[in-house]
Amino acid sequence: MSIEVIGVTKRFKNFTALDNVSLTINSGELIALLGPSGSGKTTLLRIIAGLEWPDSGEVHFNGEDALSRSVRERNVGFVFQHYALFRHMTVFENVAFGLRVRKGRNKVPEATIQAKVKELLTLVQIDWLADRYPAQLSGGQRQRVALARALAISPQVLLLDEPFGALDAKVRKELRRWLRQLHEELPVTSVLVTHDQEEALELADRVVVMGRGRIEQVGTPGEVYDNPATAFVHDFIGETITLPGEVRNGGLYQKDRALELDAQGLSDGPAHILARPHDVELRAPDETPFHGKVLAVRTFGPTRRADVEIAGENGNIVVEAAVPLDRTLQVGEQVGLLPRRYKVFSAAKA
Fold first, then answer.
1. Which of 91, 96, 124, 343 has its Cβ near the most Cβ atoms within 10 Å?
2. Do the Cβ atoms of 263 and 250 come closer than 8 Å?
3. pTM
4. CA-CA distance, 55 to 331, in Å (whole number)?
5. Helices (H), the chain
6. Rounded Cα gap, residues 199 and 166, in angstroms
7. Phi and psi dihedrals of 69, rounded to 5?
8. Cβ-contact 344, 253 below 8 angstroms
9. pLDDT tens digits for 100-147?
């Protein structure tokens, strides 16, 4: 099932949740809607599901108008962050619920329900919990029940709203790996809402980065991490060092000193030089465009980081740089910072 969102706008009183959003999701893809709170990702998901209606715009399923269909007619499975399981029903009955409520010509025979639920519980690896109640399950087990229930109606579209947000980090990682494998076995188009960048980059075929009700960038995990289209994307995905600068006549400067860095075609004006900590090399102060004093050094596992205070346009700023484990670095030491790989954005638009 392909999904096409065309020029969708949604407002809640004076707040614009979605601002002329367009997006094409290919059949069988697993797409992640990634962004901070208030970016519009959950509103977009609910509009695709039929739980919200846009003020303007269109939504198409396989080229047909989806807005003219009810939630049930869209054949969408929905998995919520907090499971939304029926506490008075066993795991088996929770999964069977969507099949049992079908009436008339859509009524499902009991034998079919029994076979379908057993198949799904085996698929999500909790068949041995069929007779338990939600209160007797761990968070990870409840989320598997919720996913099995969503899949019971054989949806063509699976929508997941922060499905692992209530789980601890270790369980989240295990379920992410399991969900990726599960998606590859099922003929379903999946849309995942998350604010967890690691989750989006690990799970999705493509990532849709959203901010302030708009789509900032759409691309593969590698594309949005390695080639962010905007300063917002660079800052939101991964760790970012922001260094000050100004573009003049095609060159980068800090105050009156040429930085000997590529301005990347940016027009004249204040600029931000953005880099990943591991792409910034520590060198002697007189060898680099930026230098400053080490304020703190922290080591955790295979990673060492240093807080370095450097001069900015409006006073000193502190940036965090990666430090090789074989390098000795002292608090108070003067060091230079040399960006090896970086992106330059207008400070006015960053």
1. 91
2. yes
3. 0.86
4. 56
5. 41-49, 91-100, 110-123, 139-152, 169-185, 197-203, 221-226, 231-236
6. 14
7. -105, 150
8. no
9. 988 888 888 999 999 999 998 988 888 999 999 999 998 888 888 988
